[in-house]
Each structure stands twice: as C-alpha cells, then as structure tokens.
C-alpha cells in the first residue's frame, strides 16, 4: 500500500497553513474549525458529512469549510486519500475580503463541495509554490486570484439566525469559549443560558450541527494550536486548555488536525518537543513496522518524523 506522508507548511508571507496528505486512511470525526478550509481532492473517494448533508467527494472536488461548519469524513472506496489544502484564519480572510470586495465582512461560502476547474487551476500551482518555500511575487498574486474567484462565485452575505433559542445557543458558545480551561458540565451551561438540558441539547445540535461537548473540545483544540504556535510544550498546552491528560489531548489533536501536537509545534519553533509519548521530528517510534513520514516547515525550516508505513 502507498506510504502515508503528511506535510504541513506555514507560510509567513501569506500567514496561512498549507497541508498535503498522501496515502491517508485516517477518518476524521465530526468537528469544526475556527478558520476557513480550502481543500482539493487529488485522488481517493470519501463519504463527507457537512452541516447535516451527505456528500461523496472524489478526485477533482474542492471542499470549502467556513469557520464553524461541522464536518466528518471517512474513506469509502477501500483506498487512500491524496489531499492538499489551506487553512486561512478569519483575520487574514477579513483583510483579503476588504481588498477584494471593499468590505470587511467575512465571506460565507454557500457551497461546501464544488467541482470547478478554474478554481483548481489557481489552487494547485499556489499550493506547490508554498510547499517549495517560494518567495515569488506570483505566490501572493495567486492567493488573491484564488480567493477573488471563490468569493465572487461562492460567497454570500452572512445570514441572520432566526432559529428558536438562537440567543441562548450563542450565549452557551460564549460561555464555553470563556471557560474552556475549566472543568465545566452541561448543568453549568444550562444554568447560564436559562434552558433545560434537553432543550439546550436539541437546539444547540440543530443550529450548530454538533453537540455542546464536541463544540467545547473543538474550542480547546483551537486554543491549544495557538499555544503550540507560540512554542508552548504540548504537555503544558494540554493543561492550559482543559484536557484531562496528555493522552486525551494528543488523541483529540491528531484526530482533528491530522498531525501530533509536538509535530505541529515544531513547524513554528524548529525545536524538539520533548513531549512524553511523542518523539521529535528526527526520532523514530518503536514497535511498528515500516515508516510513515510527517514533514513540517516554516520559512525554509524542514523536518521529518518517521512513524510507520501503512
């Protein structure tokens, strides 16, 4: 079977993350991100669930996830996935949206799965430039062309929330975002927003497409990413974001982000993590046959972690 390789590059000029997964078989559970995801399927077929809709994504499809769009996917063809994509923060998107549209309103992509050859013609060459660490003018130009095309064809104005208990659900989100580092329970959230447990669970899941607990875990992962980017050790990041232990944190991080916390940290620091149970980029874990490569870079810094071969 094809060797699995995961490559993550942070581009300091564009301030975005570029991901490349080759030979991937890992499923991703229902989750969301605080940033935009623009991804391209190079090969393989997956069953995708996004905002309570079911899709089959395959070679040539582009996926567009807005911040907060819940989604999950699993391989459906018995093979592996080859994928490349970008993670774009809301602050970067807001600045670019103003440059493209004249408004600082965050765009909302109306479709989550598209097949658009013109988008592909902009996305793939741009991704290659970032992977190669290019500092050319064409990289920024390509990024602007790509986002201009996506916003023009698939962008829409944010919709006002008119669902029942909308304010209460938003207050529940704000409460979890403010207290993510603490041990909080469903009863506390319900008391804060003034709803019964059953009403909150039903309304929250209908509006967000995800349960309150899963929302909290996603918030914690998002905050942990910020700490790791600042060079905080994974074990400390786990403690500061409310995870019960290192193993729990590492498992969740890998399931949602696709790489281990220490690997993600090294993309930004270039230093070995020293995280118990997780080897440095140059290290090798024992007890597994073969090798899997995980590569991360930032501004010309390259590293490789060997784990195992599928």
Describe, in short, the structure shown.
The chain is α+β, with helices and mostly antiparallel strands.
Overall description:
The chain is globular and about 55 Å long. A hairpin with a 2-residue loop joins strand 5 (46-50) and strand 6. The chain has ten helices and 14 strands. Helix content is 40%, strand content 24%. Helix 1 (90-101) packs across helix 3, helix 2 packs antiparallel against helix 3 (137-154) and helix 4 packs across helix 5 (186-193). It is α+β, with helices and mostly antiparallel strands and 310 residues long. The protein starts with a strand and ends with a strand. The strands form three sheets. Strands 11-7-4-9-2-1-13-14 form an eight-stranded mixed sheet, sandwiched between helices. A four-stranded antiparallel sheet has the order 3-8-5-6. It has a two-stranded antiparallel ribbon with strand order 10-12.
């Amino acid at each position: 079977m094809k060797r699995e390789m995961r490559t993550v590059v942070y581009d300091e000029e564009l301030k975005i993350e570029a991901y490349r997964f080759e030979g991937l078989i890992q499923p991703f559970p229902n989750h969301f991100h605080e940033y935009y995801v623009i991804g391209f399927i190079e090969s393989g077929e997956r069953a995708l669930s996004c905002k309570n809709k079911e899709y089959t994504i395959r070679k040539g499809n582009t996926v567009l996830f807005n911040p907060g769009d819940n989604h999950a996917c699993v391989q459906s063809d018995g093979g592996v996935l080859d994928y490349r994509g970008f993670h774009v923060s809301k602050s970067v998107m807001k600045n670019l949206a103003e440059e493209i549209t004249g408004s600082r309103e965050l765009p909302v992509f109306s479709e989550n799965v598209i097949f658009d050859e013109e988008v592909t013609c902009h996305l793939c060459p741009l991704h290659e430039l970032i992977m190669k660490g290019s500092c050319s003018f064409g990289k920024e130009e390509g990024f602007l062309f790509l986002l201009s095309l996506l916003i023009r064809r698939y962008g829409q104005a944010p919709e006002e929330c008119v669902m029942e208990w909308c304010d209460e659900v938003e207050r529940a989100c704000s409460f979890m975002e403010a207290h993510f580092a603490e041990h909080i329970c469903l009863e506390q959230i319900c008391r804060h927003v003034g709803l019964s447990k059953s009403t909150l669970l039903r309304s929250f899941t209908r509006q967000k497409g995800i349960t309150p607990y899963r929302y909290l875990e996603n918030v914690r992962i998002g905050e942990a990413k910020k700490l790791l980017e600042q060079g905080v050790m994974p074990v400390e990041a786990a403690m500061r974001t409310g995870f019960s232990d290192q193993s729990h944190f590492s498992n969740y991080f890998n399931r949602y982000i696709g790489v281990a916390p220490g690997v993600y940290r090294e993309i930004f620091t270039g230093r070995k993590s020293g995280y118990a149970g997780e080897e440095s980029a140059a290290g090798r874990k024992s007890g597994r046959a073969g090798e899997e490569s995980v590569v991360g870079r930032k501004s010309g810094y390259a590293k490789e972690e060997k784990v195992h071969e599928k």
